[in-house]
Write a structure and sequence with these properties.
With 458 residues, the protein is an all-alpha fold. The chain has 20 helices and 4 strands. The protein has helices at residues 3-18, 28-53, 75-98, 105-120, 125-143, 149-180, 185-192, 197-215, 224-230, 233-243, 245-258, 260-265, 267-286, 291-312, 314-337, 344-358, 364-375, 380-406, 423-437, 440-450, and strands spanning 56-59, 70-73, 341-342, 415-416. The chain is globular, with a radius of gyration of 21 Å. The two termini are 37 Å apart.
Length: 458
């Protein structure tokens, strides 16, 4: 059994086993943390092999290719798998310190990790759909966790919207099979290059809509603020720091990877939509006066930078999109985990997160935005939109900082807590600061992941 199959087996087996156990017991979430940590270690071994020797491909169960589940780890997939599992681990550790409120939470996070890993590390488009659905099913239940009818309503909105997005995705998969007569991603990329342009454009639009819904891009964002503000901090961190990654990955893998011709044709539209997301999310975030609401609307704006970079394309654009996605996931996870806390430490972490969102050194957000600005050099209009978005980010982040951390807390739910609730946010803050001071590993990984995609090699 290879490290690649072990990385998928650990969270799947542990998640199924923990479904029979009450996750509110103090020791249960730590079992989940241990399984996620083992998964991270195994993924690290896979990543080292991929970066040293190239993609790793295997078919499970010794089945023939096209019958068994084809796993394929390349630099792009393993980067997003590591990122998502790391953010899930951070959320579970934080919840374990805080006290798990729902019995199935540890098991659901493990099953979510298995689904996300499978989606990132498969070489078959139908298997991507299956793992995709597993991850979404777990996230639907997680979104329902929390007290009060508002959470139930938000969870139902999240489920309904994403079911529609998944249906559109499945239609596009059917279209791909109709046009190419294969579900293998490597063969799809080759055959779509000579497919009928009209059919290819319809398929590309379907994939774009499906992944834009998951990512919360404007104008597919309407579900996002309701869900993020109603969810528990750990669940909001999971949705924004892990589940949203599948949208960015999907746009890169299916757009730049399988449909590069259609991506090039739609580049202008992608840049316009990305710019609209940046400005729309920034303007609405300014009108918010709580950290949770601000972060929800900020998420709409921040993913716009990823879309702009993908629209620019090429080695610089794709690498910038990946780097920004990594930094944004860390930012959102750290900030959402602190939304119900107060104190000097939390205030300092929030200030660091605000600097990172705005793209101000020494936070890692500066590196991410600098890479996106590098991608748009030569286009003053797009650069101006990015600059305006950064200024809006600075305004809304420090408005909320002033309201929630300079003034006495008026919200009874935002309380000062023990040091244990600070452990994970402090660790993530350290990572954000370290990547801002020493960005070379982030840039090298992003560049290696981008070179997997057609058109990313000069």
């Amino acid at each position: 059994m290879t490290a690649l199959s072990i990385a998928l087996l650990i969270p799947w087996a542990a998640g199924v086993a923990l479904l029979a156990v009450d996750g509110r017991r103090a020791w249960v979430p730590w079992i989940s943390v241990g399984a996620l940590a083992a998964t991270l270690i195994t993924l690290g071994a896979v990543a080292a092999q991929v970066l040293a020797s190239g993609p790793v491909t295997m078919t499970t169960g010794n089945w023939p290719v096209g019958v068994g589940i084809t796993l394929r780890a390349d630099a792009l997939g393993v980067t997003f798998a590591l990122l998502s599992v790391a953010m899930l681990t951070a959320a579970v550790v934080h919840e374990a310190f805080d006290g798990v409120a729902e019995r199935e939470f540890p098991a659901l996070v493990l099953l979510l990790a298995a689904g996300l890993e499978g989606a990132f590390l498969t070489g078959d488009i139908f298997n991507f759909y299956v793992f995709f659905e597993l991850a979404l099913a777990a996230s639907y239940v997680l979104a329902l966790h929390g007290p009060g009818p508002r959470v139930l309503g938000a969870g139902l909105v999240f489920t309904a919207v994403n079911v529609v997005g998944t249906f559109v995705f499945l239609l596009s998969v059917a279209g791909v099979y109709r046009v190419t007569a294969t579900l293998d991603m490597a063969r799809i990329g080759e055959r779509m290059a000579v497919a009928d342009p009209n059919a290819a454009i319809l398929i590309a639009v379907g994939f774009f809509v499906a992944f834009s819904v998951k990512l919360g891009l404007f104008p597919f964002h309407f579900w996002l603020p309701t869900v993020y503000t109603a969810a528990r901090p750990a669940v909001a961190a999971i949705l924004s720091g892990s589940v949203a990654n599948i949208g960015a990955y999907g746009l890169l893998r299916f757009g730049a990877g399988l449909l590069p011709r259609e991506l090039e044709l739609a580049a202008g539209a992608l840049i316009v939509l990305g710019g609209a997301s940046i400005l729309y999310g920034g303007v609405l975030a300014i009108s918010r006066r709580s950290a949770g609401e601000m972060l929800a609307y900020s998420a709409i704006g921040q993913v716009g930078y990823v879309l702009v970079a993908i629209g620019i394309g090429g080695p610089v654009g794709f690498a910038a999109a990946i780097a920004y996605a990594i930094v944004n996931a860390a930012n959102k996870t750290m900030l959402f985990l602190t939304t119900s806390q107060r104190g000097v430490v939390v205030g300092g972490l929030f200030a660091l997160g605000a600097l990172s969102i705005a793209g101000i050194p020494p936070a890692a957000g500066f590196v991410g935005k600098l890479e996106v600005f590098r991608a748009v050099v030569g286009d003053p209009v797009v650069a101006g939109v990015l600059l305006l978005g950064s200024l809006l980010s600075l305004v809304y982040a420090f408005e909320v900082y002033q309201v929630e951390h300079w003034r006495p807390a008026a919200d009874a739910t935002a309380v000062r807590v023990s040091w244990r609730a600070w452990v994970v946010p402090v660790a993530l803050g350290g990572v954000i600061l370290a990547l801002g001071v020493w960005p070379e590993p982030l840039l090298a990984l992003s560049d290696a992941a981008a070179r997997v995609l057609p058109g990313a090699n000069p």
